[in-house]
Amino acid sequence: MIRIFVTGGTFDKTYDEIHGRLSFGDTHLQEMLRLGRARVEASVRTLMMIDSLDMTDADREVIVRNCQQTPETRIVITHGTDTMVETAAALARQVSGKTIVLTGAMIPYAFGSSDGLFNLGSALSFVQTLPEGVYIAMNGQHFAWDNVRKNRETGVFEPLT
Amino acid sequence: MIRIFVTGGTFDKTYDEIHGRLSFGDTHLQEMLRLGRARVEASVRTLMMIDSLDMTDADREVIVRNCQQTPETRIVITHGTDTMVETAAALARQVSGKTIVLTGAMIPYAFGSSDGLFNLGSALSFVQTLPEGVYIAMNGQHFAWDNVRKNRETGVFEPLT
Amino acid sequence: MIRIFVTGGTFDKTYDEIHGRLSFGDTHLQEMLRLGRARVEASVRTLMMIDSLDMTDADREVIVRNCQQTPETRIVITHGTDTMVETAAALARQVSGKTIVLTGAMIPYAFGSSDGLFNLGSALSFVQTLPEGVYIAMNGQHFAWDNVRKNRETGVFEPLT
Amino acid sequence: MIRIFVTGGTFDKTYDEIHGRLSFGDTHLQEMLRLGRARVEASVRTLMMIDSLDMTDADREVIVRNCQQTPETRIVITHGTDTMVETAAALARQVSGKTIVLTGAMIPYAFGSSDGLFNLGSALSFVQTLPEGVYIAMNGQHFAWDNVRKNRETGVFEPLT
After folding, report:
1. What pLDDT, on the 0 to 100 scale, is given for residue C111?
2. Numbered residues of chain D with Cβ closer than 8 Å to any chain A Cβ
């Protein structure tokens, strides 16, 4: 049984047609799991629906606490890419005995050309096979939480060493 | 370094608009890797481009030989779902020391609503983390080659036991 | 008030994932009108759901009779492209006092890359502005029923003269 | 021969993945014409690439002048919906002897769920069949420039009377 926590991020950005801007509505996770015909046992819970640039320490505490308290030992977290590494570090310091994989998208799922479905398939697979620890899964790769950074110029996650 | 062998299947079916039917053209794998922004080192080679119901023993030999001869030890094979289990068995009998993951799609990638991108993200992740052996990755799950069947009525892969 | 008659054709072909082939299910017309945010008053009726290569004289009679009997004077018919010209001729011989526009698609709507939405927007616009008569609307163009043929090699509708 | 002038608007908004916001790049018009398999003779020219809320009187003068000077008498203009009615009024005051149709989209074309392709098919059809004058084509409907407003709450264009 896999637990999926939704926190927002580009994954779930949608187009607000009345105001002509990006916004957050409901998560697309259930629809993505349906499209991917996922048959892994996964329960989805939305913790927040925010841009990760707006994520506060208190928000991170909510994520940490949920990961601590949920009975599942395999957890996927959808998260904005900008501060994904920070949240991964907070989780690594405070959660043990679990495999946690953070993932996100560079292009909103609601766009036809999103990398979200690929990343979701990837994260759900890594979480089933990686040993305990906190990881980031992007671009078909996985990184340990303490050996990764987002290159802000290229938008790509890279190992530190 | 991951080797990707393309054999056709629903993944790569396209719509032939002159004759109004499904057909095979070029593989969509490169486009899918681009869309998924995959940064795993992967080289793609098309072995054949056929419906897996039309796959002969000779075709399977071609797949086996390519898996034996390629220097990479991590291999993803895109394959029609109908005889994917048969090809997995042929590979398990004749290839050793490698992690081979077969994957496919229930809906062609060229359709907007395909499960292909999700499955590709999943297969590329499983192949990096599973031990040596032959596996099928579908629906976000992985199955050992000798404990899986395709349920023809539901279109879903299931464990035998 | 516009009447839309659905007869099938490439427009409405869908992918049958259990049998791995194209088939007809329900029409996509309502979904397409919603996507196009159409606000023309239009009522949709499915007369048949077939490949136009399989359309018989009896089927054509059904279409003709429905066009005769419906009170609306502006009618759009979705139709397979292969015999669209034949149906247009049957309508021109037997229906008068109405503007009838036949349209279709080269790529099924269910494919991401369909021309269907463009053609539907086009047909609904032509039917509001063209004088009485029977027309074919494809590729952003309109043709009188007796001055058009489908070029089978290129898949394109062309004027005869 | 139809002239298409591009001015930006929701039609052409794209997702800037480095900064995580909407922006304007190149127009999608050529790609949309290709997808719609349009065979009307149309030449596309980008006049500006802006949100119509940012459109100044000077920008409107550029549009007016281009419509006056182009030899074609049938013109489609893609435009943001927020001030489309204002630009239509400026055109009606200063351009005569031509059929001008303004159109736009509520959802960017780059989103899978855009109404853009439908509206483009509609606008290209109306411009071929409507008499001289300035019109707005949205939602499969056409409105004379002086009998239309955008309902800001619903995002829908409505007749004044």
Report:
1. 86
2. 10, 13, 15, 17-18, 20-22, 51, 53, 80, 82, 106-108, 110-113, 152-155
The span from the CA of B156 to the CA of B149, in Å, is: 8
Q: Which tokens in the block code for residue C156?
A: 């394109």
Closest-CA distance, C80 to chain B, in angstroms, reads 10
ipTM greater than cut 0.90: yes
Give the number of other CB atoms < 10 A from CB of residue A138.
28
Name all chains with 3 or more CB-CB pairs below 8 Å to chain A. Answer: B, D
Closest A-chain CA to D105? A17
Q: What is the pLDDT of residue D107?
A: 94
Contacting residues of A for D82, CB less than 8 Å apart: 20
Q: Please give the average per-residue pLDDT across D46-71, as a whole number.
A: 97
User: What's the gap between Cα A154 and its chain centre?
Assistant: 19
Rounded (5°) CA angle D69-D85-D130: 60
Chain C CB contacts of B104 below 8 Å = none
- Taking the whole predicted model, whether its pTM rises above 0.90 is answered as yes
What residues of chain C lie within 8 A of the CB of D121, using their CB?
A: 117-122, 125, 140
Query: Is beta strand C156-158 parallel, antiparallel or unpaired with respect to C149-151?
Result: antiparallel
Q: Are C148 and C158 in contact (CB under 8 A)?
A: yes
Arithmetic mean of pLDDT, B96-110: 96
Strands C141-144 and B21-24: unpaired
Q: What is the mean pLDDT of chain C?
A: 96
Nearest residue of chain D to residue A108 (CA atoms) = D15
Radius of gyration over alpha carbons of chain C, in Å?
15
Q: Sort A143 into a burial class: Cβ within 10 Å, 0-12 / 13-18 / 19+.
A: buried
Measured CA to CA, the distance from residue C103 to residue A87 in angstroms comes to 53
Structure tokens at D77: 């203009």
Asked if C112 and B108 come within 8 Å (Cβ–Cβ), the reply is no
> What residues are paired with A50 via a beta bridge?
A8
Give the mutation candidate from B24, B111, B114, B153 for the C interface (greatest C CB count, under 10 A): B111
Beta strands in chain D (DSSP E): 2-8, 13-16, 21-24, 42-50, 74-78, 99-103, 133-138, 141-144, 149-151, 156-158
Cβ contact B94:B102 at 8 Å: no
pLDDT at residue B112, rounded to an integer: 78
Count of other CB atoms within 10 angstroms of residue C4: 26
Number of H helices, E strands in chain B: 4, 10
| Phi-psi sector, C2: left (phi>0), alpha (psi -120 to 50), beta | beta
DSSP C130-156: SPSEEEEEETTEEEETTS-EEETTTTE
Best interface-test mutation with C: which of D115, D118, D148 has the largest number of C CBs within 10 A?
Answer: D118
Element (H, E) at A21: strand A21-24
Query: pLDDT digits over A79-111, tens only?
Result: 999 999 999 999 999 999 999 999 999 999 988
The alpha-carbon gap from B142 to the nearest alpha carbon of chain A, in Å, equals 8
Q: Which residues of B touch A106 (CB under 8 A)?
A: 37
- Structure token pair of residue B113: 């609503």
